[in-house]
Amino acid sequence: MAYEIPVTQARAELADLINRVVYGEERVVVTRHGKPLVALVSAADLARLENLKIEEADGAAVAEEERVIASVSAITSVTSAPGERTDFGIVAKHERPERR
Question: Measured between alpha carbons, how far is 13 from 17 in angstroms, rounded to an integer?
């Protein structure tokens, strides 16, 4: 099963997310403005996904791909801890250079 986490929260919790993916066999979808950006999967999952491309004709490979897709599509949101800051504001401001 996979769950969603906002990119700002993922930055703050990267080490924990890596441990959850590797040791907890979880999948994490990192979002920005509620839209999926990337998925964190274990190296073993990645190897299986890459092998699926090669073995596409094999019925077992297709079933494995469908299992992975079903897992990622069953995304649930993770809420921040109570009292945790969720709005970090503007980090940098881009200003256009003045024309001469």
Answer: 6
- Under the phi-then-psi rule, with left for phi > 0, alpha for psi from -120 to 50, and beta for the rest, what region is 4? beta
**Of 88, 65, 80, residue with least CA distance to 4:** 80
- The Cα 76–Cα 30 span in angstroms is 11
Determine the 3-state secondary structure of 84 from DSSP: coil
Q: Are 78 and 29 in contact (CB under 8 A)?
A: no
Tell me the pTM: 0.52
CA angle (28 as vertex; 22, 31 as ends), nearest 5:
150
Q: What is the mean pLDDT of the chain?
A: 77
d(CA 28, CA 36): 10
Residue 71's pLDDT is 75
Residues in Cβ contact with 60 at an 8 Å cutoff, skipping those fewer than 6 apart: none
